[in-house]
Amino acid sequence: MELGIANSGIIFDIKKFAIHDGPGIRTTIFFKGCPLICWWCHNPESQNFKPENFINPKNEDKHSENIEIIGKKVSVSDVFKEIEKEIIFYDQSGGGVSFSGGEPLSQPEFLLSLLKLCKNNEIHTVLDTSGYATEEILKQIQDYVDLFLYDLKFIDSTKHEKYTGVSNQQILKNLIWLSENGSKIIIRIPIIPGINDDNDELNKMRDFISGLNNIQGIDLLPFHKIGKNKYIKLNLLYKMENFNEPSSELMEKIKLKFEDTNVPVKIGG
Ligand code: SF4
C-alpha cells in the first residue's frame, strides 16, 4: 500500500543542537511509540504510542502539579517550523535532522511527510531505528534517508524475542535489504553484560556485519542505568536492577573484535 501524507503525529520531544544522533549539529525529533519493549530501554516514555503521565514519586497525588504529560500530537508543519529555525547550523556543521524515538517507522506517514519536506529543502536526514517495520514501509522511506542508525541487538532470534518482545527476523531482513540497496548505515549495538556480551553472540554479530555492504561504522553503546528513574515515574517494572554496566576494559575488548569487520568502530554514539 502506498503511504499517504500525514498532517500530524505524536512526539515526546524535540532536541535542538544534538551532537550524538548523526553528523554535525542536528535537531532530533523523538517519535512516541515503539513496537519493542527492550529490557534496557533508557527512554521507556517512548514506548507507549499515546501521551501518558510521568508521576513524581515524591507525591503520587494525581491532582498535584507533579504530574507531567509526556507526548503530544503535533502537526507536520509545526515540527518543520522548528526544524527550519536551525538551518544555518546544519549548513555550518554538516548537520541536519534526525528522527528517533520510540520507533519512527511506526508512524510511517508522519515520518515520510517530514522526510519529504527535509529533502525538498536540502536538509540532511538521519533515521535512528530498530528496523522493525514491514519491507513495504521501509522501501518507501529509504529514498529520503541519507543515513540510517540501525540497532543490532542479537542475531539469536529467541534471545531477541525474550529481551525485546519481538522476533528479529524482519529486522535482519530489512538490514540486509538496505545494505544491498545503497543505503548508508551505521550499526548501533547496545552492549549489555549478561545479555548479549557472550562470545557466541558477539561473533555472530561480527560475522553478520562482515557480510553487509555500505556499513559506514559500528557504534558500541555501553548499557547504563541512567533511565531507571523514569521507570519509577511511569510505574513500570525496571528489569535491569541486577545487571551491571560494562567496564571500559570489556568495551575495548569488544571493540577489538568488531574491528575484524574492517569497518570503523567507536565506543559511544
Ligand atoms: S527499540 Fe529503542 S526505543 Fe524501542 S524499546 Fe528498544 S531501546 Fe526502547
Write the layout of secondary structure elements.
Elements: E1 8-18, E2 26-31, E3 52-55, E4 67-70, E5 72-75, H1 76-84, H2 87-93, E6 96-100, H3 108-120, E7 124-129, H4 135-142, E8 147-151, H5 157-164, H6 169-180, E9 185-191, H7 199-210, E10 215-222, H8 228-233, H9 248-258, E11 265-267
Parallel strand pairs: 2-6, 6-7, 7-8, 8-9, 9-10, 10-11
Antiparallel strand pairs: 1-2, 1-5, 3-4
This protein binds iron/sulfur cluster (SF4).
Residues 34, 36-38, 41, 43, 46-47, 101-103, 130 line the site of iron/sulfur cluster.
Q: How far from one another are the termini?
A: 34 Å
> Helical amount among residues, as a percent range?
25-40%
Rg over alpha carbons = 19 Å
Q: Could you list the spans in which at least 5 consecutive residues all have pLDDT below 50?
A: none
Please count the beta strands (DSSP E, at least 2 residues each): 11
* Mean residue pLDDT: 95
What is the percentage of strand-forming residues?
Answer: 15-25%
What's the level 1 CATH class? Answer: Alpha Beta
Write the CATH architecture name: Alpha-Beta Barrel
Number of domains: 1
Quaternary status: single chain
Give the SSE order as H and E letters.
EEEEEHHEHEHEHHEHEHHE
Tertiary shape: globular
Bound molecules: iron/sulfur cluster
Strand order of the largest sheet: 5-1-2-6-7-8-9-10-11
